[in-house]
Amino acid sequence: MEHYDSVLFSRMLTELTLTFHIIYATIGVGVPLLIFMAQWLGIKKQDEHYILLARRWTRGFIITVAVGVVTGTAIGLQLNLLWPTFMELAGNVIALPLFMETFAFFFEAIFLGIYLYTWDRFENQRKHMLLLIPVAIGASFSAVFITMVNAFMNTPQGFELENGNLINVEPLIAMFNPAMPTKVAHVLATAYMTSAFILASIAAFRMMKGSNHIYHKKALLLTVKIGLVFSIAAAIIGDFSGKFLAAYQPEKLAAMEWHFHTEEGAPLVLFGILDEENDIQYSIKLPYALSILAHGNPNAEVIGLDQYNEEDIPPLYIHYLFNIMVIIGMGVTFIGLIYVVANFLRRTFIHNKWFLTLLVLTGPLCIIAIEAGWWLAEVGRQPWILRGILRTKDAATTSNHVDVMLYLFIALYIVLGIASMIVLIRMFKRNPVEKELQDVKGGG
Amino acid sequence: MSHELIGISVLWCFLFGYIIVASIDFGAGFFQAYSVLVKKEHIISNIIKRYLSPVWEVTNVFLVFFFVGIVGFFPSTAYYYGTILLVPASIAIILLAIRGSYYAFTTYGSLKSNMWTYLYGFSGLFIPASLSIVLTISEGGFVLQTNSSIELDYLNLFLSPLTWSIVILSLTSVLYISAVFLTWYASKAKDEEATELMRKYALIWAIPAILTAAGIIVELRLHNIHHYERMIDLWWMFAISFLLFLLTIRLLWLRRSYGLAFIVLTLQFFIAFFAYGVSHYPYLLYPYLTITEGFTSDAMATALIIAFIAGFCLLIPSLFLLFKLFLFNKAYLEGKTK
Q: What φ, ψ does residue B334 adopt, rounded to 5°?
């Protein structure tokens, strides 16, 4: 019983840290690219607005980076503290990308420090802009390496187990595992997409509040365009992810689609709830769609949950998470598409209050989708921490103090979350764009 | 050289790097808070801010590098230390989180209140205290092994004089290292008032730092005789370290070449730190874990070493650029550029 508790609390603490960290991590991966785009446009078009955009985004970015750094350190250490058995095994096989992630982050941290303090040091602004390239590369590669580790947890390979001993370890084979391509691509695309829409939300919010400044319109158009490109990319990658799951983790796909019986020409279940007998109620069934998603062929056979023992099946509530993620993804893509097309056709309804409200919602919605996606990825891998090799319940720490730590960290994240919000809001309220633009003009 | 020896040496170097940069950082935070408390803020605040601003993130990475690296090279440490360190390491994470984020909040955001300066400054002293516990635990005698698990013997750890000597050593050396560095930094910035004040702090903290260091060797004799004897075998390394300590003090006393003083101090700590490490060899955790038993596979070790060399080739020029722009740039130091 005691052992059971430490597993539960370890899971809760890990989930809590990841849920909190992923917001800041996503922004940390995506925003450098957007700052780079804005600064590049500003230099190319000799447009002060884009330069100011880059400056203001950087100022906010640094706050989120700070929280991302400290929560990233927390999750890195917590993996060892809460899952010592898993990390001992993982350390033997998948340590390489973890190790390289620190280098990528090191690289990013150094150049971010330089970038921040050298706005006015270079005669040639391009030189200053170039400093962002290592920042963006470091940020993106941090995500790539960490996602490789997560992919390994889903499709472990590159080693053999013999009487409980690891032999024939091949670090590169472990790194480039089957789950890696779709997972890495999906994480990167959605991080860029989410960051773009968060910044779009801010611009739309300013316009909704009555600011008519061209600065906000430029910001909105730039961010929605970038967000749209990556949301379309995310949708395409999603299709590949379905095919990957069908081939390598069919139980995860079956659980998230509530696909109970192995059959050909399988329909895709959208929405719905499960009743007590595990029958699906109130759902929409798209005929053949699951077979197409899984195998690209409407008549293909899709493996159902009936092929698995009960103790090997993930919790069925991941279907809701999957739906939330997909619906938000499609909805946000659609809003972005309307905005870009209408802007091209010079329709003015996109600057009406109701449409701006929709745009304001895109950022928060994307964050919800990111959370749902990570919960889906992690809960969908249960009961395994390392699929097929090590069960979550056997990997947790045996310490009896996890619950106290959980409460401490809840308090920490509340403080950090609220403080970072207050700081960000105050930072931009005290120094609105209009004022800063005048200062630039006034100052020469 | 065997792979495990390369591995532990690289990690030990990074831990040393962390100890130096983090000490400067923690000490600077403390001196700043202290200066606010005694209303001497105007003297050293500027110097400290100008140093800390561009490098605070980099400090943290050294620590992350160390613990990711040690789990990579010695995966069994994840099991042993991961299990026993839950409470002390969690507390250290929380303190690091508060400290790191509030630094950014106050510097880049407009959160300005003396309370945060105090919180920031004094939490910086608790972090080395909580992290140094790991060194105490590694000496053995604080881990209870039951048939299915291992656990930390909190009471014993809390009551041990060794624990407290190591904690005090961590605090005194943090303040000493930081004060010497800031003396040099202030003198490079041609800020005489700040240089004098930091020099005074450096001299004040030098004595307790060396006394506690010597005290620990005595404590170890009672606690872990095996380790103590191995340290005595390396007496000459500690002797060199002590001579370097005297040289730093002399330079500070004579107000001469503060830059050299800091380099000598770094060497002093480097030699003592390696003498300690070598005498600890081959144990990672007395008596459960040695570096050969806990070592990863050959393939992984090779991969990690290659990755390390490649990464190092990227990092060294980047760090050089950072230092060139902020530590050794005259205009920046003297506050002429922003």
A: -85, 5
CA distance B223 to A251: 54
Cross-chain Cβ contact A70/B101 below 8 Å: yes
Listed in sequence order, the residues at least 6 apart from B334 whose beta carbon sits closer than 8 Å to its beta carbon are: B189, B190
* Cβ separation A109–B57 shorter than 8 A: yes
A251-264 pLDDT per residue, tens: 888 888 888 888 88
Residue B338 domain flag: no
Q: Are residues A368 and A408 in the same domain?
A: no
Examine the predicted complex and report whether its ipTM is higher than 0.95: no
In a domain, A166, yes or no: yes
Flag if A398 and B149 touch (Cβ within 8 Å): yes
Instruction: Measure CB to CB from residue B314 to each of A81, A92, A107 and give the nearest one.
Output: A107
pLDDT < 70 stretches in chain B: 52-57, 109-113, 327-338
In total, the C-beta contacts within 8 angstroms joining chain A to chain B are 232
Q: Which one, of B166, B14, B184, B153, lies nearest residue B83 by Cα?
A: B153
Band the pLDDT of A368: cuts 50, 70, 90: very high
* Nearest residue on chain B to A118, alpha-carbon basis: B338
Domain boundary among A351, A380, A409: A380
Cβ contact B57–A112 (<8 Å): yes
Closest approach of chain B CAs to the CA of A361, in angstroms? 25
Same domain, A376 and A426: no
Beta carbons of B201 and B38 less than 8 angstroms apart = no
- Structural domains of chain A, count: 2
Least confident of A163-177, A267-281, B289-303: A267-281
Closest CA to B172 of B60, B269, B43, B75: B269
Closest CA to A409 of A2, A66, A20, A3: A20
Q: Is the pLDDT of residue A4 over 60?
A: no
Regarding whether A266 and A341 lie in a shared domain, the answer is yes
Nearest by CB: A106 against B61, B89, B111: B61
